[in-house]
Amino acid sequence: RAACPCAATIRSSGAQRCLRLTPLIVCAAVLLPVLACAGLTTIKHSYANEYKEAGQWLKDNGGDGAKVMNREFSSAYYAGGTAVVLPYDTYERTTDYARLKGVEYMIVGRKAITDWRPGLTRLLDDGVNHPEWELVKTVRAGTDREALVFRLVND
Are the C-beta atoms of residues 66 and 104 closer than 8 Å to each other? Predict the structure, then answer.
């Protein structure tokens, strides 16, 4: 019976080690780029810097120490104020809640309104439909990271 010409090569310890490592090398070559891209995407989109910018603007423009209603707390932190959670409710009930809590400002992203707070859609109009809230600043205007700073108008 004839011997396989590759048998001598496969029997050497270096070749056996190479054969054992091949699945690991292939796995690493496939998974590492995928994991790296996923990690970079998560880092890139994990923190909403527009809320930080809006909070800093508010602090620099008279809102230092204000009660700020928002979906997250970083804008109130950077404004030097107190955070009040933005409820998932209608425009009217959100406004009533803001007055009850003594809110002075609301910071909310345009995308957050369209995606997660449909009851506040009228805030995206020109102001006629939301006389209780005055738009005082737009951060990152015209981008998908646009944040809107509203001041609650006193009765």
Answer: yes
Half-sphere CA count of 117, side-chain side, radius 13 A: 24
Q: How many CB atoms lie within 10 A of CB 83?
A: 20
Sequence-distant contacts of 20-24: CB under 8 A, at least 24 apart: none
Q: Rounded to whole angstroms, what are the CA distances from 125 to 24, 83, 120? A: 56, 25, 10
Task: Yes or no: say if 80 and 22 are a contact pair by the CB < 8 Å rule.
Answer: no
pLDDT in tens, 42-51: 555 556 799 9
* % the chain with pLDDT above 70: 79
pTM beyond 0.85: no
Cβ contacts of 82 within 8 Å, gap of 6 or more: 65, 66, 67, 68, 76
Output the CA torsion sign for 72, 91, 59, 135. positive
CA distance 148 to 50: 9
> Distances in Å between the alpha carbon of 153 and those of 105, 108, 150?
9, 17, 9
**Nearest alpha carbon to residue 130 among 75, 103, 90, 97:** 90
